[in-house]
Design goal:
Layout: E1 4-9, H1 30-37, H2 44-49, H3 51-54, E2 69-73, H4 82-89, H5 107-116, E3 123-127, H6 130-144, E4 148-151, E5 156-162, H7 168-182, E6 191-198, E7 205-206, E8 211-214, H8 222-228, E9 232-236, H9 239-242, E10 250-252, H10 257-270, E11 274-280, H11 282-288, H12 293-313, E12 319-323, E13 342-347, E14 355-359, H13 364-372
Parallel strand pairs: 1-11, 1-12, 2-14, 3-4, 5-6, 9-10, 9-11
Antiparallel strand pairs: 2-13, 4-5, 6-7, 6-8, 12-13
Helix pairs in contact: 5-7, 10-12, 11-12
């Protein structure tokens, strides 16, 4: 089958990076701290892979004969958001940071937002939790029809709107205009995100009709390079948005981890000579950002339970990487991403696990994929295919 599969466990970090203090993330360790908080994690299949060989994780003992090669990777790009992390996994070193708006967006930006979208007003314009902001301003939004604009520690412009007040098509159009005509140049945030919700007073809830409007990576990533060399490329879930669809032959959307895992297995079984990259976002969105270690652990257990099915769908010519894009420690006061090392588990059938050590960049994943398909490139990173 000769497929190369990369599964990004969104937000699953393995300890603070040396520069974590610059990001306010000293002491962050998503898996390690969560294990201490819960008096141990129960992840038997990931344990067999060698997850506990990467760092000490209470409840996940080191495997004496790990099924996968193991290590951790250092982020060298500036930032700790999903876009930067994925672009580095794609072979780039991002030496610029996206703009952030801890005090809300400037008045001139918001005036343009109203003008170009033919809106009479907006609500909020401040950093906020997505669930809390709709509870705070949902009623006023329903009464006025004004969209709720908010941001976070990430470089994002988020627009929340009730689906019965601003229909999805209209919300998406507002996001598209904001992305392409307003948030450009010095205000080019990483993503503009549509955040629709439903419900009534005291019972508002976000729907799964979220849509991200990203920007193009500054150079070709491993996805574009492989696609340009005749390799079939498949993106599952959030990958499509983060790479802005560049070089992706097959775009598979998902709304949950379980959908993502199902499509991973189907893609492996039905494709040959393909690069398959998937993002499982539930860990980050529903548990990391909400400081819910119990839910985070449950989501990890659900993935762990499905890992044997993923392995079963592979043949001996396939390769699998499990990793992450940043941390999101649910035990710290912050509800934002954390600047952490990410895990690296590299599996191929009939191959013994080795210690891959601490890699110098996430881009080693891209170089390993390029090496697997024998494609020359000028990407960052160093292959560990035959390590």
């Amino acid at each position: 089958m000769n497929n190369f599969i990369v599964i990004v466990l969104d937000g699953v970090g393995v300890g603070e990076l040396p520069d974590a203090n610059k990001f306010g993330d000293s002491g962050s360790n998503t898996l390690g701290n969560m294990a201490e908080k819960l008096n141990g994690l129960n992840l038997p299949n990931l344990q067999k892979f060698g997850l506990g060989n990467i760092i000490p994780i209470k409840g996940v003992e080191p495997a004496s004969d790990p099924q996968a090669s193991f290590g951790k990777m250092t982020e060298v790009s500036t930032g700790k958001d999903s876009t930067t992390g994925h672009w580095e996994l794609g072979g780039l070193k991002i030496d610029f940071d996206f703009p952030y708006y801890p005090n809300g967006f400037p008045e001139d930006v918001m005036n343009m937002f109203l003008q170009k979208n033919n809106l009479e007003g907006y609500l909020a314009n401040k950093p906020a939790s997505g669930t809390e902001i709709i509870e705070e301003l949902g009623d006023e939004h329903v009464q006025t029809g004004y969209p709720i604009v908010y941001t976070s520690a990430d470089s994002v412009f988020q627009i929340a709107a009730h689906e019965e007040i601003i229909p999805l098509d209209r919300l998406y159009k507002i996001c598209e205009v904001t992305r392409n005509e307003i948030l450009i140049n010095e205000h080019a945030v990483g993503r503009v995100i549509a955040r629709p919700f439903i419900g009534t007073h005291g019972n508002y809830s976000r729907t799964t009709n979220r849509k991200d409007f990203s920007i193009d990576p500054p150079q070709k990533t491993i996805i574009e390079i492989l696609s340009g060399n005749g390799i079939n490329t498949i993106a599952i879930g959030k990958i499509n948005d983060l790479f802005n669809y560049r070089g992706i032959n097959n775009q598979l959307k998902t709304k949950t981890n379980s959908e993502g895992i199902k499509k991973i297995i189907e893609s492996i079984e039905s494709n040959n000579h393909s690069y398959i990259m998937a993002n499982l976002v539930d860990f980050d969105v529903y548990y990391g950002h909400r400081n819910d270690p119990v839910g985070f652990h449950k989501a990890l257990q659900e993935f762990d339970n499905k890992l044997p099915e993923i392995i079963e769908s592979m043949d001996k010519s396939d390769a699998l990487i499990l990793t992450a894009d940043h941390g999101n420690d649910p035990t710290t006061p912050s509800t934002d991403h954390s600047r952490e090392y990410v895990p690296l588990l590299y599996y191929s059938k009939n191959r013994s696990g080795k210690n891959l050590g601490t890699r110098k960049t996430f881009s080693d994943v891209a170089q390993t994929a390029a090496h697997f398909f024998k494609v020359n490139n000028a990407l960052e990173g160093e292959s560990f295919l035959n390590a």
